TrEMBL record:
Protein name: ABC transporter permease
Signal peptide interval: none
Bilayer topology annotation: Multi-pass membrane protein
PANTHER family xref list: ARGININE ABC TRANSPORTER PERMEASE PROTEIN ARTQ, CATIONIC AMINO ACID TRANSPORTER, MEMBRANE COMPONENT
Similarity comment: Belongs to the binding-protein-dependent transport system permease family. HisMQ subfamily.
Protein source organism: Neorhizobium turbinariae
ABC transmembrane type-1 domain boundaries: 46-246
Pfam family, any one: BPD_transp_1
Transmembrane segments: 42-71, 92-116, 128-153, 174-195, 225-249
Location in the cell: Cell inner membrane; Cell membrane
Length: 260
């Protein structure tokens, strides 16, 4: 079954597939697919970048939603904790956050395992560490977007839910959340584009994303400008495709609004 999926992905690969860009226009060049060039490696880097960004969004949004709820809680401790969280991870450079999580998780696990007399070396998966680091940063910014959206919803919406006999959770799910998504979507769209660019940081911990793959090709071939220019084009292409897709999502989210 996995062979079928691999064959299907290979056929639909927009870079090195039968009708891929590299296959059609990059043959007999440095970006040719196969052993003749670096096309396959760069295509794999694009797949890793997209997978990392897509995997990060739901985790970051979930954490950001919880932080936004804590920030408007009546409990002073929760509000303080939410404020500290957002201040730290919005203030730290993304690269430092990545280093702290990547190396900190290894040190923490090593210390825990030492209690069980395990002396072996622990290495954290670079993809997992990158996803956690980017999710933490994404959540700190998305929590502010969601908090602003929460505050834009009139308090009467909550009272209307209570008047209908809905519980607090059902009011949030059925009345507040649909409005929250529509209000927060433009801000979250910008955060997605930022996240797409921030995935480039994971190259420093060895993950084979676009930047790392093109960087290796640049060092081996001594054609740095060419390969980094290819990386720029790939990020721009992902941003343009994302913009069209997110524009469609925004129109879908606003489908219930009354036309003026």
């Amino acid at each position: 079954m996995s062979g079928i999926f691999s064959a299907l992905f290979g056929a639909l690969d927009p870079l090195c597939g039968p009708i891929g860009i590299f296959s059609l226009f990059g043959s007999n060049s440095l970006i040719a697919c196969g052993d003749a060039g670096w096309g396959d490696e760069i295509a794999f880097g694009v797949l890793v970048t997209i997978t990392l960004a897509v995997a990060t969004v739901p985790v970051g949004l979930f954490i950001g939603f919880l932080i936004a709820l804590a920030a408007q809680s009546k409990d002073k401790t929760l509000r303080l904790a939410a404020g500290i969280y957002t201040t730290i991870f919005r203030g730290l450079p993304e690269l430092l956050t990545l280093f702290i999580i990547y190396y900190g998780m290894q040190i923490g696990l090593q210390a825990v395992l030492a209690w069980f007399n395990y002396e072996g070396r622990v290495e954290i998966n670079a993809f997992l560490a990158g996803m956690i680091a980017l999710a933490v940063v994404f959540s700190s910014y998305s929590s502010e977007v969601l908090l602003s959206a929460f505050r834009a919803i009139p308090h009467g919406q909550y009272e209307a839910g209570e008047a209908l006999g809905l519980s607090r959770w059902r009011t949030l799910r059925l009345i507040v959340l649909p409005q929250l998504i529509r209000i927060a979507l433009p801000g979250l769209t910008n955060l997605w584009l930022i996240l797409l660019k921030d995935t480039s940081y994971v190259s420093v911990i060895g993950l084979a994303d676009i930047v790392r793959q093109t960087g290796i090709a640049a060092r081996v071939s001594k054609e740095a400008f060419f390969f980094y220019f290819i990386a720029c084009l790939l990020y721009l292409a992902l941003a343009v495709i994302s913009s069209f897709g997110l524009r469609y999502v925004e129109r879908w989210a606003r489908r219930s609004e009354v036309r003026r």
